Write the structure tokens for this entry.
Amino acid sequence: MDSVVVAGGGAAGVAAAEALRAEGFTGSLTLVCGEPELPYDRPPLSKQVLTGTWDPARTRLREASHYADKGIRIVHAQARSLDLAGRTVRLDDGADLGYDGLVIATGVRPRTLAAGHELTGVHVLRCLADTAALRSALEQSSHVVIVGAGFLGMEVAAAARTLGLEVTVVDPLAQPMVRQVGPLIGAAVAGLHRSAGVIVRTDVGVSEITGEDGHVTGVRLDDGSALQADCVLVAIGAVPEVTWLHGSGLSLGDGVDCDEFLKAADGVYAAGDVASWTSPRYRRRVRVEHRMNATEMGTCAARNLLGQAEPFDPVPYFWSDQYRVKLQVHGDLSPSDTVTIEEGAIGDGKFVALFHRDGVPTAVLGWNAPARMPPYRKQLLA
Ligand SMILES: Cc1cc2nc3c(=O)[nH]c(=O)nc-3n(C[C@H](O)[C@H](O)[C@H](O)COP(=O)(O)OP(=O)(O)OC[C@H]3O[C@@H](n4cnc5c(N)ncnc54)[C@H](O)[C@@H]3O)c2cc1C
């Protein structure tokens, strides 16, 4: 193999490029970065960068010299299309990049609400530019409404509250983060935010974002009530960034569909938020939008591209920081799983919850309990 192209310069793309070199690949290696910045880390965007405790430059994954030293050529451009038969990626400047091997790592893009998205004061949060825009809006606002109580919405609620804003979170589900942590812990998350002064409105959806003279004024809810806002964050999930792959012949059911080796087609592998794979552990197709997974998947995809045959079979992991609480989840839980509190108690500020399905542990959640996680994770790996 003489040349590899990695499309997407996020955590998964960087991990893939670095693993290629670590595994001894000496051919030409191009990392196609769709953003103007050098690759950076996203988790701090909704936390330290939004609250202003970190300068955005601190999120950089590596300095420019690192890529030069490793012989990783960075091209700042968007991949526009893929010719599988011709083994070529076309860029938005018209250039064609030929490859022997390709790793697709183009991540996801935020979902938006159709009505009202064009108003100024309405934001999404995915990249550094979004973070700068949202931070500047928060500085000039007093009332922020967050549409969507997933982990991103709740992290921004914590950040905005810390900055002193009046914050309301709205979600049609029964509890915040219910898909990620189930209803019992979701209720604890709601309690955490309510005690910090956030208004948490669950079981109600948003019917419309309202505006005047092109600027947002609030949101109207399904129950007919209205909330005033000078800033709205729409945090209702994300969709795999596969637009450039339409018509390529790749299977794009849930992102880029891969087998258990992360292979999508001959010479083509995918990794990170954009890719789903057949999980040997869970015996179904899985797609994970979490930071640790991106690195592990990028590394595995690179190795398999070079000829190894390592199934990708992790126990997924994610964390979320809200106020002084660190939530950590290892495993694959379903909101309907049974929950037992193994250590501490909800409300104590520190506890460990174990999730079970048909008597088998599926996941463990730590609430300010990082040191307690390893033995439970070991149990899940068994
Ligand atoms: C604000 C925020 C906070 C988060 N916090 C946490 C957390 O606390 N814990 C946790 O576990 N996870 C967290 N995550 C999730 C985690 O950051 C992601 O899972 C991870 O970044 C995925 O990495 P990736 O490389 O797959 O995708 P990305 O990081 O999205 O990188 C993909 C890159 O590809 C580029 N791209 C897209 N299309 C093209 C194209 N056509 N051509 C070229 N380039 C393209 C994109 O611009 C982007 O730079 C957070 C995410 C966000 C947005």
Summary: The two ends are 37 Å apart (CA to CA).
